[in-house]
Specification:
The chain is mainly beta. The protein has 2 helices and 11 strands.
Length: about 180
């Protein structure tokens, strides 16, 4: 008697597809909001800084969850200035109309990471000339428990981004472009 078992493989795969997400979620950390009135991660506008050739927008990604997150930075260690952590955070420029993400500047070959614990933030600068009304700043991040490299275009199948849109800058400041 011939018994065909080819139907068992799709059944096994279907079972994994249905059950595996629940196993992964059950084993991952549960993150809670610190301030329920805010998003889990958000970027705030902190003002303008006059650079040597461009006006820089000072932005600050916040981690409003109790789970640490990791962002990429250049090959400079973050530094603390006047009690505030500063870093050269890797950011992307997002064009929602064309659905594109591209590096905001030449990142170089070295990539470092910056941990942002729950309730913390880090400052970084974006030249105002890189922004226009169609583009948004997107900062890729990962949760520390994911244990992968952040990588804006490589890494885990699910990418996390926190966005900042130009309309959050006061109109008077945007005109100074």
């Amino acid at each position: 008697m011939n018994v065909r078992t080819t139907h068992l493989q799709p059944l096994f795969v279907a079972t994994l597809v249905l059950v595996l997400p629940y196993v992964v979620l059950a084993n991952s950390e549960s993150c809670a909001l610190i301030d329920p009135a805010r998003a889990a991660q958000f970027i705030s506008y902190e003002g303008m800084s006059e650079g040597t050739s461009d006006s820089d927008v000072l932005l600050r990604p916040h981690n409003n969850s109790d789970c640490p997150i990791i962002v990429e930075s250049d090959d400079h260690d973050p530094f603390v200035f006047q009690g505030k952590k500063n870093a050269s955070v890797h950011y992307l420029l997002h064009d929602p109309w064309r659905a594109t993400l591209k590096p905001g500047y030449g990142w170089g070959d070295s990539v470092f990471t910056v941990d942002i614990r729950g309730g913390e933030s880090v400052w970084f600068r974006v030249p105002l000339t890189r922004l226009n009304r169609r583009l948004a700043v997107a900062v890729p991040f990962e949760f520390a428990w994911e244990a992968n490299h952040v990588g804006a275009f490589v890494g885990p199948a699910v990418q996390h981004y926190v966005y900042f849109f130009l309309d959050r800058i006061p109109a008077k400041k945007r005109r100074g472009k």
